[in-house]
Every structure is written in C-alpha cells, then in structure tokens.
C-alpha cells in the first residue's frame, strides 16, 4: 500500500487554516456585535472602567467560541475540499495513485487538534469565565443599573420598586424630579416624591441605594382613605433590591460550576435526582459540543468533494444546513435529557453519532466511485444539478437569438447606464452570495441563541409553538442588525472572485471600468438601504414588542410588564404632570376599573390625588363612581373630600389613549420619535439621547452603500487570494464601523458630543475615507 504523502497533508491543513480562522472570526463577531453597544454604554457612562468593560467582554467570549469552533471547522473542511475538487487537484492526486479519501486524514487530524483546544475551553476555561462574568456583573451592577435607567420612563428593573426620573444629568449623576412607587406591600400604597436623587453603592456590602433629598412619603391603605400618612424628610435612602439575574448566590449553577464540582454533584447521594441529572447533562455537553469538530471533519470531506466551479456557495449552504440541523437536534436532545425522557448520554451524544453515521454513509458513496468527477454526496445534489441543467437549456434556447453575432452581444454589454449582460451576471453572483450569507447568519444566530435559552425553555415548560413564534418575531431584528455586514461580505466576495479568476483584467481590456462594474452593486446597496429603513419603520418595532412578550414567557417572568398602555401599572398623561393607575381597562365599555389619579406640580411634588371604584367615558369626560379626593394645600394642610354620585375625574384623554400601543422611544417610527422630541424640547427637557436615536434611524441604513463603496478599492487588490481575503477585509471594515458607531452614539447620549454629530460621525468618517481611497482604485 502506498504511503500517504504528508506534503499533501500539510498543503490541505495550510489551506484549511485560512477559512477556519476567517469563519471563526466572522461567526464570533456576528454573535457579539449587539453586545458592543452595551459595553460602549457601560464605558461611556463613567461608572465602569475600561479595564472592567474589556474584562467583561473577554469573559463573554469563551461561551461563543466553544460554539463557533465546530462551525468554523466544518466550513473550512467543505471549502478546502470543494476548492481542490473544483480545480481538479483531487483528480491529479488520483492520477498519482493517491486515493481521494486519503485527503480526509489531515482534515481529521486537524479536527482532533481543534477538538483538544475546544474541549480544554469547555472543561476549564468556560466555567471559570462564566463564574467571573457573573461576579463582574454583580460588581458592575451599579454601573449597569445606572446605564439601564432612562429619563421620563418608568423603570421596573428593581424588584418591588417602580422608579421614575424626570431629568438626568449624566455628567454629575444627579437626578431631578424623582418618583418611587413601593409595590412590596399589596395592602398598602406608598409613594415617595423627591426633588433630587442619586445612586449610591455600598462598597462593603455591594448594595445599591437611592439617596433622596427633600423627599415626601405618602402612605395609604385603600380600605381607609380617611387615614392618610404624609412625612417629609430632608434626606432619606432607599435600598434598591437587585433583580433576580444579578442577585448574589452562594452556590453556582451548572454553567458556572467547575468540572470537578459537577462531577462531585453528579455522584453525590445528597443531591436530588434532578440536580444530579443537570450535572450529568452539563458534563456531557462540555465534551459533546467540542467533539462535534471531529464529527464535522469527517463529514466535511464527502460534502466538499465535488468537481465543479462555484463550490463556495455550495460549501456555505451545506455548512449552514448541517450546523443548524445539528444544533436543533442537540438542543432538543438536551431538553429531553434534562426532563428525563431520554438517557443523558443518548440525548447529548445522539447528534454527534448521527453526523458520524452520515459521514461514513457519504464516504461509502465516494469510495464506490472510480472517479470523483461527480461523486454526488446525495441524490438531492444530483437532482439539483439536473434541474439546473434543464434551466440552463431553457435559457439557452430562449436567448438563442443572442448567439447570432458577438458584435450584437458586445453592443448589449456596452451601454453605461442600462443593465447589460455583465451587469446582470455580476448582480446574480452577488445576490446569490448575499442570500447565502444572510441565511447563514440568521441560522447561526438562532441556533446559538436557542442553545442559550434551552435551559429556561425546559425549566418553564415552554410550548414549542411559543419558541417558534419567538424566533419568528426575532428574525426582523436579526436582519436589521446583519444586513450591512452580509451585503458587504457578498460585495467583497464577488469582487475577489472576479479578481482571482482574472475576469477584471478581461473587463479592463474590453474597455469596461471596474467602477462601472461596481455601479449596479452600489445601486443595489442603495435599494437595500431604503428597504432597511422601511423595515425598521414598519416591521422591526412591532416584531420586537411581540418577541419581548414571548421572551418573558420563555424566561418565566410573571411580574407586571409594560407592552401596551392598558398593561401599565402607572401611566403618565400627555401633560407630563398627571399619572393614572388602574386595575383594568375595558376598551369596549370605555371603562377604567379602580383608577387612581395623581396630580403633580412642575417639581413633581404631589398636589392632588383622586380615586374611584370605576370610571366611564361619556361625552368627552371620565365620570367616576364612589370617588374620593385629597388636595394638598400650599400651607401644608390637606382637603379630603369623599364624594357620592357621579364625579368628573381630572383625566384629559380619550379611551383611545389607554388602548393604543405603548412605545418606548427606541420603538417609535422616525416621525413619531421626531414629534415626541419636539414635545419634550417645548417642555424644556434635555433630549440628547433621543436625538442620537433619531438620526441613527437615517444614518445606519446608509451603511449598506457606504461600506461597499469604501471597500471598492480593496476589493480589486486581493489578487489570487480570492474570497477568503475578501471576507476578511469585510470583517475588518465592519468591526471598525460598528465599534465607532457604538462609541460615538454613547458619547452623544451623555452629551460629550453634539447628538447630531455623534449619530453621523461614523457615516461622515467612512464617507471621507471612501472618497480618499477612490483615488487609488485602478479602474
């Protein structure tokens, strides 16, 4: 038997390294891109140091990397073998007496090395990173809580406390006009008003306190409205309880526990059966997920072994389908194992076993073929090839008139403004690549997010239809976040292939400028920009609100949440000085059940309070039944008035105000947010944060044109390096753009930059850079 030529093995591994690191970088960046804005907000809020933010980012990476390494290995294996097969190098090796299946040996060895790295991360690095991430989050809770608070919005982040702040001064941390509704005692209503306030952290205990100045405490038992308590304090402090996710726990969960601790729990008779099962599930996960690298290295060879041009799109498509299918099986197996419906080992390892079985089945197909000219890893691929051949034949006959002469064809390709045959061909290549990348990104995002949610889904017994609906409504936001990067990758990938195949040389020799070739692609980018803006204005906002509701179901949140105005425990009226609290709103009968009306002055000091058992809207007025009112006089006295019969309540809005959908500033359309800002400016409020969000609604979609325009000079300088370098360049540009966007927007929100400048800084910077780089484009 001939010995395997290891020089070929080294060549295979060397070629696989580039796609591997590229795929790992792209998938990791895509999965952490949304966290950049959170980290930037923590950094710019001045309550979190740069070291803490970078440390938090580093602790969050191992969880993502453990998942992305198997994906990257499969993609690199399929892409490498596909490229060798497409360039007939596999046939050349066969002619030299080297079996095609021998190429699997270096890929298998490469997979074993990545498995060793990944399993080390999963067994030792990941638990420690999860633990330190949790500890750092607790330590930074003061900064995180402050960054999450927004002015003129009821904040329910603190258990039992509903906090409202009229004005915030980020530079000093001082608040003006503070309301605190204490919801801890259902039998007693407590309202605290204060002129000023600020957050204070107790460094010895880690507790977070709200320090108030010139505070007044209003206490009332609803069954005895005649007994009303009011006390004034020049200074007072309120302990803000941390939310459950940030509460200190003595015992870490399975994800934060070390491997030794899990092993001890799994064998401990003192632990309950469910806790032992949870420990076994986590132990098997820490080995089974990295083991997918070995299984994917076996499967990647037969999937990539096909002798035809254009294998990159095939490799990307197959890789995504396999990865998504694998994680769906893995997560469902984990659910069944956690619930005890399947043995732990079978539930966790079944996807790996299926992948290995599939790999050997495909290898049998390959080994039975004397030539790898078209091994066809499955009948579906062969069917697809036949259908593609029929389509090409149909198009050839339909365009038979085009073959009458080359001069006529050249004339069709020549017009500079109309789409010719070259334009259509380039657009077809780019859009195909774009759709593949978009499907890949969405599939990977959903697969990874599902793996993070699977524990909550099992614990809260969430129905499958709720989970499917959640990801369906999450999809518009995923598209919104990833469209610019996906189109940039498609743009650079297409340009890199043209350059690699010397097609750009042929175009320039024919007198066609490369700028002219890229023009329709930039036009597509402009069209996608408009599409992204319309998507944000119409679909994304509604889908986000629905996905937020469904996420609460998945996470088992049963407390009051605010999605529609009728769901609000407390609601400000448009005058900004009247709060209405009600138990229930009946839209058909136009009735409020047990409404309470709080009337404040400009300093948010309580001036009057009304209560009714029921209020009905008639003839433009809300009429209450069993009403009492209490007016606080300027001299410090009170006027309590129980009233009989129907009494007009100081509610100045129609029922439509309570039935319409509530929208946070980030969930408004451009015109709605613009109108909202105008009202706040008229009232004298600082609106820097909202102005940044408003202008970003215009600036962000332009990145679909801006980034490809900037990448144009780099796209045609990649030479023979091809798609890999094209995608790498796209990744670097996208990282720079999104990092600058995150930092500049947060600087604008805290008034360190003018809001308009902060929102448009990334666009202006990259546009100027693009103009400068166009001078170096050799068209």
TrEMBL record:
Signal peptide: none annotated. The chain crosses the membrane at residues 20-44, 56-79, 107-126, 311-330, 342-363, 433-450, 485-502, 514-535, 698-716, 723-740, 752-771. The keyword Cell membrane applies. GO terms for cellular component: ATP-binding cassette (ABC) transporter complex. It is found in: Cell membrane. The keyword Membrane applies. It comes from Thermoanaerobaculum aquaticum. InterPro entries: LptG/LptF_permease. It is a multi-pass membrane protein. GO terms for biological process: lipopolysaccharide transport. Keywords: Cell membrane, Membrane, Transmembrane, Transmembrane helix. It comes from the Bacteria. This is YjgP/YjgQ family permease. It holds the Pfam family LptF_LptG.
């Amino acid at each position: 038997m001939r010995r395997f030529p290891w020089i070929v093995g080294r060549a295979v591994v060397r070629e696989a390294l580039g796609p591997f690191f590229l795929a790992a970088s792209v998938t990791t960046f895509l999965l952490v891109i949304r966290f950049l804005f959170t980290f930037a907000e923590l950094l710019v809020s001045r309550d979190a140091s740069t070291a803490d933010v970078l440390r938090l980012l580093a602790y969050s990476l191992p969880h993502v990397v453990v998942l992305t390494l198997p994906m990257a290995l499969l993609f690199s294996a399929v892409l490498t073998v596909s490229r060798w097969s497409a360039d007939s190098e596999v046939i050349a090796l066969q002619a030299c007496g080297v079996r095609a299946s021998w190429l699997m040996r270096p890929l298998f060895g490469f997979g074993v090395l990545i498995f060793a790295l990944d399993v080390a991360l999963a067994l030792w690095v990941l638990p420690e990173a999860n633990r330190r991430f949790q500890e750092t989050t607790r330590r930074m809770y003061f900064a995180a809580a402050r960054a999450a608070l927004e002015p003129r919005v009821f904040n329910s982040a603190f258990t039992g406390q509903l906090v409202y702040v009229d004005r915030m001064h980020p530079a000093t941390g001082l608040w003006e006009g503070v309301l605190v509704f204490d919801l801890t005692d259902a039998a007693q209503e407590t309202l605290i008003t204060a002129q000023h306030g600020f957050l204070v952290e107790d460094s010895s205990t880690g507790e977070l306190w709200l320090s108030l100045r010139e505070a007044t405490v209003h206490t009332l038992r609803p069954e005895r409205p005649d007994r009303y308590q009011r006390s004034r304090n020049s200074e007072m402090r309120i302990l803000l309880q941390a939310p459950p996710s940030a509460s200190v726990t003595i015992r870490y969960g399975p994800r934060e526990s070390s491997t030794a601790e899990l092993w001890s729990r799994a064998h401990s008779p003192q632990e309950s059966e469910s806790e032992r099962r949870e420990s076994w599930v986590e132990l098997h996960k820490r080995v089974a997920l990295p083991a997918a690298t070995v299984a994917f290295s076996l499967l990647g060879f037969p999937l990539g072994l096909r002798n035809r041009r254009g294998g990159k799109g095939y490799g990307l498509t197959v890789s995504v389908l396999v990865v998504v299918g694998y994680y769906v099986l893995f997560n469902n197996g984990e659910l069944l194992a956690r619930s005890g419906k399947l043995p732990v080992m079978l539930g966790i390892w079944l996807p790996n076993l299926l992948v290995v079985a599939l790999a050997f089945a495909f290898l049998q197909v390959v080994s039975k073929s004397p030539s790898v000219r078209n091994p066809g890893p499955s009948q579906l691929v062969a069917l697809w090839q036949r259908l593609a051949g029929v389509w090409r034949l149909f198009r050839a006959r339909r365009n038979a008139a085009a073959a009458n002469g080359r001069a006529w064809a050249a004339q069709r390709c020549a017009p500079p403004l109309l789409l010719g045959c070259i334009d259509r061909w380039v657009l077809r290549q780019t859009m195909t690549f774009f759709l593949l990348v978009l499907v890949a990104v969405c599939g990977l995002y959903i697969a990874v997010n599902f793996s993070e949610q699977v524990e909550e889904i099992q614990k809260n017994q969430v129905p499958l239809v709720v989970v499917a609906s959640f990801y369906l409504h999450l999809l518009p936001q995923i598209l919104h976040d990833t469209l610019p990067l996906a189109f940039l990758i498609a743009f650079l990938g297409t340009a890199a292939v043209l350059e690699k195949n010397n097609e750009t040389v042929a175009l320039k020799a024919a007198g066609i400028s490369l700028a002219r070739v890229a023009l329709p692609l930039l036009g597509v980018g402009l069209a996608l920009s408009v599409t992204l803006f319309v998507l944000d204005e119409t679909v994304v906002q509604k889908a986000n609100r629905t996905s937020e509701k469904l996420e609460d179901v998945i996470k088992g949140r049963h407390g009051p949440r605010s999605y529609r105005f009728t769901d609000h425990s407390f609601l400000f009226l448009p005058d900004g000085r009247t709060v209405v609290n009600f138990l229930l709103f009946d839209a058909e009968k136009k009735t409020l059940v047990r409404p309470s009306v709080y009337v404040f002055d400009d300093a948010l000091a309580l001036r009057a309070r009304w209560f009714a058992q029921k209020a009905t809207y008639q003839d433009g007025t809300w009429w209450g039944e069993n009403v009492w009112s209490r007016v606080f006089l300027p001299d410090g006295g009170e006027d309590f008035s129980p009233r009989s019969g129907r009494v007009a309540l100081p509610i100045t809005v129609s029922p439509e105000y309570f039935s319409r959908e509530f929208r946070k500033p980030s969930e408004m359309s451009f015109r709605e947010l613009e109108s909202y800002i105008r009202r706040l400016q008229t009232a004298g409020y600082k609106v820097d944060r909202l102005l940044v969000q408003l202008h970003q609604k215009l600036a962000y979609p332009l990145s679909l044109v801006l980034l490809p325009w900037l990448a144009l000079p780099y796209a045609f300088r990649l030479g023979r390096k091809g798609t890999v370098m094209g995608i790498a360049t796209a990744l670097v540009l996208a990282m720079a753009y999104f990092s600058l966007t995150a930092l500049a927007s947060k600087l604008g929100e805290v008034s360190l930059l003018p809001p308009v400048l902060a929102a448009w800084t990334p666009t202006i910077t990259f546009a100027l850079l693009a103009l400068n780089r166009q001078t170096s484009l050799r068209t």
